[in-house]
Amino acid sequence: MPNRNQPILVLMGGFSGEREVSLVSGKAIAEALLRGGWKAETFDWQGSLSDLSRQLAKQPWGAVFNALHGSGGEDGVVQGAITLSQIPATHSNVLSSALAMDKPLTRALVSCRGIAVPEGEVMRFADLQQDEPRVRPYVVKPVADGSSLRVTIVGQGDSAPDFATLYKDSAPDEPFLVEQYIPGRELTVSVLGTEALAVTELQPVDGFYDYEAKYSPEKTRHLVPAPIPESVYSRACAIAEQVHSLLGCSCLSRSDFRWDEEAGAEDTLYFLEINTQPGMTPTSLVPEQAAWRGMDFDTLVESILQAARPLAPWMSRAAMASALQGAELSP
Predict the structure, then answer these.
(1) How far apart are CA 249 and CA 315, in angstroms?
(2) Cα Rg for the chain, rounded, in angstroms?
(3) Of the listed 102, 186, 273, 302, which one is catalytic?
(4) What architecture is domain 100-116+184-324?
(5) Is the pLDDT of residue 12 over 50?
(6) What is the mean pLDDT of the chain?
(7) Quick one: pLDDT band at residue 189, thresholds 50, 70, 90?
(8) 70 an active-site residue?
(9) Is 235 a catalytic residue?
(10) For the chain, is the Cβ count within 10 Å smaller at the N or the C terminus?
(11) Rounded CA gap, 103 and 119, in Å?
């Protein structure tokens, strides 16, 4: 557990499409730590592991507060470097980060626990261009991006999607997840420690909850607590806690759901994905849910920091056995 006599290194930036979001998150976190009497220093990591190693060796850091998002920062890469440094760090370890970032693998693990996920399959970019990948409506998304980057929804009346243009920088073998589109309401649940904070319903003003809707004020209405039946609310919280535990996540996560209220059952929830390092910007969902629970931003940041510990590169054998039990993993 860190103490105020040692400086805290706040990692931010990165090289993913979420770089700008991470910079905002990191700045807000560092400012909160300074207000709380902590020594804090930010480091704008731009992708060089040698630069990161030098920064980690610069002084005896009390902890690393990982405010990176997306590829490189949330998928186990940076976690590996921190693990080797033996410096305590926030958020999940190498294995949990890698598992959670891989959407198809996460789907396989959670579905074998009886948690509903949209029907779907993984397709290569080259195959995606051959024909309609599945019956409309459907969703196409990269297997390991966050913040709804490069997500395409194809509806019944839409023109034929031009995937060659939409994903023009993709390699032929790049995998994409093609999922059944679930109509209904967008829900999200944050887990702090091991406890769900709240359920928020997201109502984009226009279109769907894409990158712009996530990070532009006035683009999405956040309803917290979500105005949904208690049975659905409780189940969303329970599933978020279950998935957080199943993947061995630590400190903080946020799980996203669709609830098809027209399907005839109140508990028709579909798990979509989990984020192990959700944003901490002024429009982010975790601080908003914490505030609803009576926890201001500075207290939330300190709570996450106090959970920092040396990152083990593995799950316990019992946790791994539990995660893999009954899972059918595609090659």
Answers:
(1) 10
(2) 20
(3) 273
(4) 2-Layer Sandwich (3.30)
(5) yes
(6) 88
(7) very high
(8) no
(9) no
(10) C
(11) 13
Integer Cα distance of 279 and 49 in angstroms: 23
Give the position of tokens 């975790």: 286
How far apart are alpha carbons 295 and 292 in whole angstroms? 7
Reply yes or no on whether 316 is catalytic. Answer: no
Categorize the per-residue pLDDT at 215 as very low, low, confident or very high, splitting at 50, 70 and 90. Answer: very low
Q: What is the pTM of this model?
A: 0.89
Pairing of strands 252-259, 152-154: unpaired
> Looking at 13, 14, 16, 18, which residue is catalytic?
18
Q: Decide if 273 is catalytic.
A: yes
215 is catalytic: yes
Whether the Cβ atoms of residue 46 and residue 122 lie closer than 8 Å to each other: no
Is 279 annotated as catalytic? Answer: yes
More confident residue, 186 or 321: 186
User: Which tokens belong to 330?
Assistant: 């595609």
Domain boundaries, the chain: 8-91, 100-116+184-324, 120-180
DSSP string computed for 191-253: EETTEEEEEEEEEESSSSS-HHHHHSTTSEEEESS--S-HHHHHHHHHHHHHHHHHTT--SEE
Query: 275 catalytic, yes or no?
Result: yes
8-91 CATH: 3.40.50.20
Identified catalytic residue from 75, 179, 241, 256:
256
Active site residue 41: no
Active-site pick, 71, 138, 279, 284: 279
Token pair, residue 63, equals 């902890």
Q: Which of 16, 22, 71, 275 is catalytic?
A: 275
Per-residue pLDDT tens over the stretch 15-35 = 998 899 999 999 999 999 999
**Cα gap 144→77, rounded to integer Å:** 13
Sheet of strand 195-204: strand arrangement: 220-223, 195-204, 185-192, 252-259, 269-275
Architecture, CATH, for domain 120-180: 2-Layer Sandwich (3.30)
